[in-house]
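During the no-cost extension, the postdoctoral fellow (Dr. R.K.) reprocessed legacy sequence entries with the updated structure-token encoder. One reprocessed record is reproduced below for audit purposes.
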Amino acid sequence: MTRPTQAKLNLSALRHNVSVARELAPQSKVMAVVKANAYGHGAAIIAGALQSHADAFAVASIEEAAALRGSGITRPILLLEGLFDESELGIAAQLDVWLSIHNQQQLQWLEGAELSDPLTCWLKIDTGMNRLGVTPDNALHYHQRLVNTPNATDGTVAYTHFAAADDVQNLQTQRQIDAFDNLTFNVTRSAANSAAVLAWPLTHYDWVRPGYMLYGNSPMTQDHPNARTLKPVMTLTSAVIALHDVAAGESVGYGGTWVAQRPSVIATVTIGYGDGYPREAPNGTPILVNGQRAALAGRVSMDMITVDVTDLEHVQLGSEVVLWGSGLPLGEVARWANTIGYELTTRMPQRTLRVVVNA
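Re-encoded structure tokens follow.
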């Protein structure tokens, strides 16, 4: 029998989430962000499902772009961090990918290259994130050099990235919008990440770049009506493989961190930190067993967890367990584990089988 731990992927939900982005930004093209193996969901699966639903894709590196091309993706692919070495220019040309230009060195590499065809470039402008990008004061200079080099196509896109769009009360986003709007040259523009797509309509410009929201999860720090329309793509599931009666006063798991306060029934579930479930999850973290809420009881180990199912009905060997996804929001589990949902999905290992359940 196959080990029942699976990350079930609902591709119908994925396409629904893209449609949400398009409805919120009807005048914008959609660049689906599939870096980090599509936030742990499987880049080839996700990009393949969106081939006719997204206008372009975004990744972090040339290796990720090459993997997408190898899986049959023909849409444009943007390298969000640009090139890390001059030698990658030839590979970028072969793959026909779009380049981010965010510093002097990358621009010099492009200007000095011998390319048979020009490459499409996106100019990264730092409006306050202070991570990557040229300053707004230097943006016109960089843009002019891209116009002048035969190695860049016409139509460079100017883009920026928000530091705090997930918090609608944070004034930094408006300061970044103002800085971006004050640029003195007329180009195609892009600024909106998932949070901005959902909550900052003035930032939609010509391109939006949804990532986390595509996978059905809210990036917002507070509840937001647009985020409520999203549907989870990944549901992490497993099954009960043992049931134990535990007397009051007995402990469960490594270190005895959970002690029964009453006669209890403990279900052992075949999933652990080796499958991407967070070791940091404390006692009480919510888990669904047969669709009923239960609570983690004891320390997460590599291959197993233990769950208090004392008050649940009809739990038996083989009962389905949902760790997050349909019926149990990823963000809720992440908060219990003192992290964010982005980390939980992106660090999921290949050991956890991705299974398409609704294409």
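The chain has two domains: 11-219, 234-358. The radius of gyration is 23 Å. The remaining legacy entries will be reprocessed before the final report is submitted.
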